[in-house]
Amino acid sequence: MQPDKHHIIAIQEPWRNPKMATTVKPPNYHLIYPKHADTRVCFYVSKRLDVLKWDAEEHSPDLITLILHLKHQELHIHNCYNQPPKLATSHELGILQGLPAVLRKPGEHLLLGDFNLHHPIWGGVVVPTQHALADDLIEITQQANMQLILPQGTITWRRNNSQSTLDLAFATPWTTNCVQQCQPCDELDSDSDHVPIITTLLANTPTCPQQPLRPIWRRADWETVRTALQSRLDGLGLHTKPAENNHKLDQKVCALQLAITETINETIPKGQPPK
């Protein structure tokens, strides 16, 4: 994972720490993980994103939302895990029951996750079975004015000789128009049965302001520093006349601070801040 490239990572069925309600926390990412024994979804949010420009909502151990405050939109990214239905004919909504409420909130929406449902709309005509709950999911997303952005027939799950489309992504119109890609990503592949899916949006990402370069003191030429500083101090004439009052003293202190800052900026080599 690259925090400069992979800004938001949505995980379903993450590894659980057996001693506490948490999971693996990669460096350079914030972890959004519902503190519940049955948690099956989490987000990793790159520290390159401005922390003041996003919020998280935990609806249940199987449904969480990340809200990005973009320049002209609020984008709600919903990460969902749907328990596999016991029967293909089952209509027990489970986590799907909570989707309409979160999808009605003002703003744009991106719904993704592991839905464990078969249907020709996303699996193609060769799907082995069709779940009744898939029709419920289709109805829920259509009522929210969302469409499937994962290409039909994309393989998202493999085990031995079996394969299927279980992981899905739906989006509202503005978000759909921003989608550059939504497809399997081999570079993020791991030992999981599920194939990683990368979704790229052409939107203004609320990144952190660029940090200024830091002075590298060990590379300083101290003779050059002393000469430059002395030249500035001589020009100020701070030692020729005592301060007449507190205001004059403050002026001298500010002038001294400015001379030191300008000398540092001029003479001390700069480097990239540590990540």
What is shown here, in short?
The chain is α+β, with helices and mostly antiparallel strands and 275 residues long.
Helix/strand layout:
Blueprint: E1 8-12, E2 29-32, E3 41-46, E4 54-60, E5 63-69, E6 74-81, H1 99-103, E7 108-114, H2 120-123, H3 132-143, E8 147-148, E9 157-159, E10 162-164, E11 167-171, H4 173-178, E12 179-184, E13 197-201, E14 214-215, H5 222-236, H6 246-267, E15 270-271
Parallel strand pairs: 6-7
Antiparallel strand pairs: 1-3, 2-3, 4-5, 5-6, 7-11, 8-11, 9-10, 12-13, 14-15
Detailed description of the structure:
With 275 residues, the chain is an alpha+beta fold. It folds into two domains: 8-201, Endonuclease/exonuclease/phosphatase (Deoxyribonuclease I, Chain A, 4-Layer Sandwich); 214-271, no CATH class. Helix content is 23%, strand content 26%. It is built from six helices and 15 strands. The strands form five sheets. It has a six-stranded mixed beta sheet. It has a three-stranded antiparallel beta sheet with strand order 1-3-2, with no helix packed on it. A two-stranded antiparallel sheet has the order 9-10. Strand 2 and strand 3 form a beta hairpin. Helix 5 (222-236) packs antiparallel against helix 6 (246-267).
